[in-house]
Specification:
Helix 1 packs parallel to helix 2. By secondary structure, the chain is α+β, with helices and mostly antiparallel strands. The chain starts with a helix and ends in an 11-residue tail after the last strand. It is 36% helix and 30% strand. Strands 1, 4, 5, 6, 7, 8, 9, 10, 11 and 12 form a 10-stranded antiparallel β-sheet that branches. Strand 7 and strand 8 form a beta hairpin. Bound molecules: zinc ion. The site of zinc ion (ZN) has 6 residues, from loops.
């Protein structure tokens, strides 16, 4: 019994000692874990340049990009606003033929029927229908660049308004201007007729074209024609 008692006592002591060691080990392990975590955390805090900063930077970059895009959008909007806020620079034409009725419309994206050539084709200008002999005037101030006459387009006057902008007056009956002549807005260029063979079936009219930087342009970018 004594042996058992002493054995149990030893076991108890051993367990107590073990528990004590286990507790110490647990404490040490816990402290070590806390230290490790703290160190890692500290390392993260201390070395954000390597570990965290890139992520943050990426996020910041993303945010900045988004902000940047927003800023750009804002800038674009501002630019647009600025563009819209500078109408004085916008050129506005007067009608090349007073009291004219618009016949064939400008149509470079869609084909329109040509009753003269009996086929669908684009129309590079606006046709102003009027009695033969009706005055054709300069829609804006400029210089007469050319006066040409060929059977297909008829008598044609081209006026250069500067900055790449030109107006072309086709199917004229007669020309009242000379090459190099300076024109003021509203000054007569010629008269309406059906000299344009390509559009002769449409009757007497002015075939009016706008050319910007060498490209055919929608005349309604500059015209404010209301009557048709
Ligand atoms: Zn035409």
């Amino acid at each position: 019994m004594n042996k058992i008692k002493s054995g149990a006592k030893k076991v108890g002591q051993f367990l107590r000692k073990n528990i004590y060691y286990v507790l110490i080990f647990c404490c040490v392990a816990a402290i070590a874990t806390m230290f490790t975590v703290a160190m890692v955390q500290q390392n993260r805090d201390e070395t954000p340049v390597i570990n965290q900063k890139p992520d943050l930077d990426d996020n910041n970059d993303d945010n900045q990009n988004q902000d940047g895009n927003n800023d750009n959008d804002d800038n674009d909007n501002n630019d647009n606003d600025n563009d819209e806020q500078t109408p004085p620079q916008k050129i506005t034409f007067i009608n090349p033929v007073e009291d004219a009725v618009v016949g064939k419309e400008f149509s470079m994206d869609a084909l329109v029927w040509s009753s003269t050539l009996k086929q669908y084709m684009t129309h590079s200008g606006v046709d102003f229908m009027a009695e033969e002999g009706t005055a054709v005037v300069a829609v804006y101030g400029g210089t007469v660049e050319s006066v040409t006459n060929d059977t297909l387009n008829g008598l044609t006057v081209t006026v250069n308004h500067g900055n790449g902008l030109k107006t072309i007056y086709g199917s004229l009956g007669e020309s009242k201007v000379e090459v190099g002549q300076t024109l003021t807005q509203g000054q007569q260029i010629g008269t309406v007729s059906d000299s344009c063979l390509a559009e002769s079936a449409d009757g007497s009219h002015l075939h009016f074209e706008v050319n910007l930087n060498g490209e055919i342009t929608d005349p309604y970018e500059y015209l404010t024609v209301s009557e048709k």
